[in-house]
Design a protein that fits this description.
- It is a single chain.
- By secondary structure, this protein is α+β, with helices and mostly antiparallel strands.
- The protein folds into 2 domains: about 160 residues, no CATH class; about 180 residues.
- It is built from 11 helices and 9 strands.
- It has a 6-stranded mixed β-sheet.
- Strand 7 and strand 8 form a beta hairpin.
C-alpha cells in the first residue's frame, strides 16, 4: 500500500509541477471575422501565427510544449514581423489549399495583410492578425468555410449584417452555408449544444488555473460533504458573474482578475495545510473566489462572442460545459487518489498536504508572473 501511495503521489506531483508553465504555452482557438464588401470576401484571423509556421498539429492540443516542434515555435516568437513575412508567404501557399471557401465553386483566397505584434517576452504567445481576401462571383447568396485539419479550433463570427452567423469549428470541420445578407443566427437548440464543448474545453484542457482551484477544494478532506458545500458555493458564484460579465453589466480588466484568480488558488491550498475540516467561513470565501473565476469565464466568452439572438441558450450551454469540466476534474481526482486512499491513515500528511503545497507554489508563481513579469 505504501509503495502504491508513493507512486501515485509522485505521478500527481509531476503532473502539477508541469502545469506551472502551461499558460505560457497554452493553445487558444483562432478568432475569425468574416465580412463582405464590394464583392470581396474578407476573413480576418486572430491567431497564434508561430504555432502554424512551426507546423504544430493544434487539433486537440492543450500545450505547445507537448510537441516535437516546441523548439522551433519558441524561436519564431522571438522574430519580428519583417523576418516572419517570408515564412508566412511560403506557409500560406500550401495552407490556403486546405482552407476552402466555397460558393458552389471554390473562392481563391490570398493573404492581403499581416500584423504581428512587437517582440515581447518570448515565453508568452503573440496574437497576430492574418487577413485573407477573395473575389466573390456576382449574386453570391451564401458561403461555406472549411477549416483545415491540424489548425485547432476556430471561432467564426460574421460581421456587418443583422442576425450574423457565429459558430465554433474544430480542425477538419466545415461551417453550414452562411447567408451573406445575414439571418443565419443559430436556433436556441443549436446555440445551447454548440457552446457546451466551448465551456468544457475552457476547463479541460485549457483551464489550468480553474483545474488547480478545484483540486484545492478536493484536497481539503476525503469526505464528500465538505466538497459538495465548496463546489456548490463556487458554482453559484461564478454563474452569477459569468452572466453579469457576459451581459456587460460588470467589466473588470484581466490584469486585475487574473492575478486575483492566482491568489485564490494560493489561499485555498494554504488553508488545506492549516486545517483538515470545513470551517464555517470557508464556503463564503469560496463564493467570493467564485465571483472572480466567473469574471475569468466571462472574458473568454468576450473573445468568443455570443450570438445576439440566442444569447441565453449559448450562455447556459457554456456554463453547463464549465460545470461538466469541473465535475470531470473531481471525478479524475477521486478515481486516481480519493477512492484508493480515502481510508489510508496517513493520506493527509503524505498526499493532501504535499499536493496542496505544490498547488500553492504554482499559484504563487502565476501571481508573480501576472503582476510583475
Amino acid at each position: 500500500m505504501v509503495q502504491i501511495l508513493r507512486l501515485t503521489f509522485t505521478l500527481l506531483m509531476s503532473s502539477l509541477l508541469q502545469v506551472a508553465g502551461a499558460r505560457a504555452h497554452e493553445v487558444t482557438p483562432t478568432i475569425g471575422d468574416l465580412s463582405v464588401q464590394d464583392g470581396t470576401l474578407r476573413l480576418e484571423l486572430r491567431l497564434n501565427l508561430e504555432a502554424f509556421l512551426a507546423g504544430i498539429d493544434l487539433d486537440g492540443l492543450a500545450d505547445t510544449d507537448d510537441t516535437e516542434q516546441t523548439g522551433d515555435y519558441d524561436l519564431l516568437r522571438g522574430l519580428p514581423q519583417s523576418e516572419l513575412e517570408p515564412m508566412v508567404d511560403t506557409f500560406s501557399q500550401d495552407w490556403l489549399e486546405t482552407l476552402e471557401v466555397t460558393v458552389g465553386a471554390r473562392v481563391a483566397m490570398s493573404v492581403s495583410d499581416l500584423q504581428v505584434p512587437a517582440v515581447g517576452p518570448v515565453d508568452l504567445p503573440r496574437a497576430s492578425i492574418l487577413v485573407l481576401e477573395g473575389a466573390l462571383p456576382q449574386a453570391t447568396g451564401s458561403v461555406t468555410l472549411h477549416w483545415p485539419s491540424g489548425s485547432g479550433g476556430l471561432v467564426l463570427r460574421q460581421q456587418g449584417v443583422e442576425d450574423p452567423y457565429t459558430g465554433f469549428l474544430q480542425g477538419g470541420e466545415s461551417s453550414p452555408p452562411i447567408p451573406l445578407r445575414g439571418g443565419a443566427n443559430l436556433t436556441a437548440r443549436d446555440a445551447f449544444i454548440d457552446y457546451i464543448p466551448v465551456g468544457f474545453e475552457h476547463i479541460i484542457p485549457l483551464g489550468w488555473d480553474h483545474i488547480l482551484f478545484v483540486l484545492g477544494l478536493f484536497f481539503l478532506s476525503r469526505h464528500l460533504r465538505p466538497l459538495i458545500w465548496q463546489i456548490s458555493a463556487f458554482t453559484v458564484a461564478h454563474t452569477v458573474t459569468l452572466a453579469l460579465g457576459a451581459l456587460g453589466y460588470v467589466t473588470v480588466p484581466a490584469s486585475i482578475v487574473e492575478p486575483l484568480i492566482a491568489a485564490s488558488i494560493v489561499y485555498v491550498a494554504i488553508e488545506n495545510v492549516l486545517t483538515n475540516h470545513l470551517h464555517r467561513w470557508r464556503p463564503v470565501v469560496i463564493f467570493a473566489f467564485g465571483l472572480l473565476h466567473g469574471l475569468g469565464f466571462a472574458s473568454v466568452l468576450g473573445d468568443f462572442g455570443l450570438p445576439t439572438e440566442q444569447f441565453l441558450p449559448a450562455l447556459i450551454g457554456f456554463n453547463i460545459g464549465v460545470e461538466l469540466g469541473q465535475l470531470t476534474v473531481i471525478a479524475i481526482a477521486w478515481i486516481s487518489v480519493g477512492f484508493w486512499f480515502r481510508n489510508y491513515p496517513k493520506y493527509r500528511g503524505r498526499v493532501a498536504i504535499p499536493a496542496s503545497i505544490t498547488i500553492a507554489a504554482i499559484g504563487t508563481y502565476w501571481f508573480v508572473e501576472r503582476v510583475f513579469l
